[in-house]
Amino acid sequence: MHYALHYSQITSYLPYLIGGALLSLELSVLAFAGGMVIGFALAIARNEGGPILSRLVRAYVIFFTNTPQLVQIYVIFFGLPDLGVVFSPFAAVLIGMTLNAGAYLTEILRAGLASVHQEELDAAETLGMSRLQSLRYVIVPHVFRVAMPPLSNQYILMTLGTSMAAVFGVEELTGRAFNVNSTTFRSIEIFTTIAGLYVVITFMATILLAVVGRYVFRARVRVL
Prior knowledge:
There is one protein chain. This protein is mostly helical. The protein has 8 helices and no strands. The chain has helices spanning about 15-50, 50-65, 70-80, 90-115, 120-125, 130-160, 175-185, 185-215. The longest helix has about 35 residues, at about 15-50. The radius of gyration is 21 Å and the shape is globular. The two termini are about 40 Å apart. The mean pLDDT is about 85.
């Protein structure tokens, strides 16, 4: 059976799909920001906390990096209501993605913290820097200079992973593509179009992260 492509039939839906792409970006940015807060705090806790705290952090990392993210969100969205805790679809996906990101970012940032040389800390102390100043001017720049490439890769994976939000009724890019497809039945045109939109938003994110890494942290981030 011959299938004729008719992209003209979906051009009127482009603003709707672009709106979904913006929602995908919002979801990935918020989840990544929350994950960074969790990751940095837990990386410090695991490196400098006691054995009990270190084991708790390790258990958190093992759980969230060894179970499917989709299952984690299912537990939050469908399981927690049985305990009286109810979240909207967007909030459930955001919480799940944030907790998952926190686990991966903990390991990335912990590796960055481990790369800080004792000589650098000794030099900061010799200059009379407080612990907070050492953290701001020595540790954080060094950590991000080392960790920027894997952090960028993790963010791109998170952006693509927002597509699973469609399963829970969130109308991000993939969710809106399902809606358009159910109306037009032009599956090839719809999903090749959103594939192109994903390429655009991830490529733009890669360029932005490369610029931030190079000019803020003096780190090299590869641009495809």
